[in-house]
Amino acid sequence: MTAEIREILGQIATVQDMVIAFEDEGRCRRVLEAVVWPSGRICPGCGYRRSTMITGRDKGKTARPGLYQCSNGACRLQFTATTRTPLHSTKLPLRVWLTGLWYILQSDKGVSSMRLAEAIGVSQPTAWRMGHALRLMVGLDRQLEGVVEFDEFYFGGKPRRDAGPPKAGRGQKGRPKTLKTPALCVVERPLTKAIGAVAGGAGASVVANLSESEAERVLTHAVDPSAHLMSDEWRAFVEAGDAFAAHETVHHSSGEYARGQVHANSAEGIQ
Ligand SMILES: [Zn+2]
Asked: What is the Å distance from ligand 1's center to 53 Cα?
């Protein structure tokens, strides 16, 4: 996180300060851009570092502040700070996300999803997902270590028809069949499973599809090579996991969800 963001958030001492600080949507957007792009704007489609702001003159009345276009001729993606992040598929205003971020940064020991839900007026499952997404966004400098579980899940929002087929066998296991925005999440195994316990580091990344290349992209970014990975047996995950010190799988298709220490229940809890 940049010094600028620390300064803005550091000036907010009370809930009242926060309401005033995040009243202005333009300011919210600038804060969020600094959180998402601490070292300058990056195209979420191809990683290109050059892009142009789309102004009202280019786009007529449809242009909105914070819309950019990738300068890579092969990409030309139009994006905002939330494109392809967990924030994108929610209908929550930026103000709500930033308020959640403030609550999370206020507490050294982490804030429970119950408290977060109460503070920002969303349901507890929503607060839980928001907490993980926000911790990922502000903690990108740290790769996850130790026992790290990973799994796929789906963010809410409009079903995407181009999301690719669901994983084989999952439809019969009570998983939702609706194709929503797919994402991969990685979670450090917490030291205790008690309700309200502070979780280890976690990350989630929206992916174009559940392919091996996407799994690899997320894992190499978020997980330290020394980590001990835990996941289900999906082939792409198995192959992507070969790059890490150890990788164990559980076999959901044969009805197995946990085998002693080998399980991915923390990551699955994000769904
Ligand atoms: Zn691009």
From this structure: 13
